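Budget justification note: compute hours in this period were largely spent on complex prediction jobs such as the one shown. Inputs:
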Amino acid sequence: GAVVSQHPSRVICKSGTSVKIECRSLDFQATTMFWYRQFPKKSLMLMATSNEGSKATYEQGVEKDKFLINHASLTLSTLTVTSAHPEDSSFYICSARAGGGYEQYFGPGTRLTVT
Amino acid sequence: GENVEQHPSTLSVQEGDSAVIKCTYSDSASNYFPWYKQELGKGPQLIIDIRSNVGEKKDQRIAVTLNKTAKHFSLHITETQPEDSAVYFCAGGQGAGNMLTFGGGTRLMVKP
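Corresponding output:
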């Protein structure tokens, strides 16, 4: 149980284009989903928290107009990187938590490369 | 806010030996402390967690201890195996409904 998927696992896009990453909870309802960014050999940096049906809460320093987050259902959240630039290249990971639960379960991550 | 520090950053042990990773936290209101294992190119996997109402929890070869007074918690892996090699992250938070703060990670290498 507690499986979270992400799609795509890898994506390469050109500078100036947008890319969408999907995060799905496969066997539970995720009232809260989190989006993290991870640089090589570094820890997880929380970008934003999204609750189903509500606007996402962004961490300080994260541009909400650049990283669009949608959590329209209890099993799906999306992160759209708009007008991507090479400095946006990173490993993006989502996690999901059931309502009232303590545990966060992570997806496998998406490697974004912007050329 | 919460601040979680993790030590050591790298740890090398011989197969069969034990490994211990330690974390400290700053917010006395934190009551939930999970540990994650991350293999190269993959997402973190929850391996064990502990809540503040207990001092120790064990699951086969892994165990976690919590000292609320000192605000530190530790991961213990016994009889290490090469497949235990990975990066381990501790985290702390106020449980249900709240975000987690992660430590900096420990790269564990188990030499066969």
